[in-house]
Amino acid sequence: MYTLFHHPMSTGSRMVRLILGEYGLETTLHEEAIWDRREAFLDVNPAATLPVMADGDRAIIGAQVCAEYLDETQGQRQRANRLFPEDALARAEMRRLNDWMLDKLENEVVRYVVRERVTKRLIPEAQGGGPPDSQALRAARTNIRYHLQYIDWLAGTRNWLGGSSLSCADMAAAASLSVLDYLGEVDWADHPALKDWYARMKSRPAFRPILSDRLRGIPPVSHYVDLDF
């Protein structure tokens, strides 16, 4: 039994949830508002970042660290369903794309959209809450264009984003895009290959809990749960 400290709008948290789901692992979810800086949580992770996964009394911190841990403890036992490619070059490409989604896309788009449209509505004004910064949103919406173009190209030239088989790269990308899609920030019409790939991801059983996520006072766009969108 695993416990995952997460937030619905945390890309890394969603990635780990997808991996846990793909491996069929029973998990207890604990939603953590990191801006509250809960003392018990800080004792586990002084950096106050998500996700944090507990395996018994052991804490594994960070999305990519959790992914590696789950591969070493679970993925190698499930060779047919393993999300880390066997080939070293294929693993390197998967890790490159993980970095793209969890670092580049996150820092150029996702964290600004989530902060301005979600977090600022949830935190006190003294902690930076308040109305969204239109300039930050404008910059994020400009940046997202080339990210979508690139991921659309990957989806159109490969069976899965990382290559011939489903991998953690697909989990990282789906986690990122699902956060943005919840908030209506993805223009699927202009990216048909990306849309087809995302429809395949949404249809996977591991994705169902992601589609059930809801934020109080911030409902998802109407097509968020639709498999045929």
Describe the model.
The chain has 8 helices and 4 strands. The protein is of the alpha+beta class and 229 residues long. A 4-stranded mixed sheet has the order 2-1-3-4. The radius of gyration is 17 Å and the shape is globular.
What is shown here, in short?
This protein has eight helices and four strands, in the order E-H-E-H-E-E-H-H-H-H-H-H.
Which descriptors apply to this entry?
229 residues, alpha+beta, four-stranded mixed sheet, globular
**Care to count the β-strands?**
4
How far is the N terminus from the C terminus? 34 Å
Task: Report strand %.
Answer: 5-15%
The description of the largest β-sheet is: 4 strands, mixed
Rg is 17 Å
Strand order of the largest sheet: 2-1-3-4
SS class? alpha+beta
Number of continuous helical runs: 8
**Please, what is the average pLDDT?**
96
Shape: globular
The sequence of SSEs as H and E is EHEHEEHHHHHH
Helix content: 40-55%
Q: Low-confidence segments, ≥5 residues, pLDDT <50? A: none
Which SSEs are present, and which pair or pack?
Layout: E1 2-6, H1 11-22, E2 27-31, H2 39-44, E3 52-55, E4 58-61, H3 63-73, H4 88-122, H5 134-157, H6 168-182, H7 192-202, H8 208-211
Parallel strand pairs: 1-2
Antiparallel strand pairs: 1-3, 3-4
Helix pairs in contact: 1-3, 1-6, 4-5, 4-6, 5-7
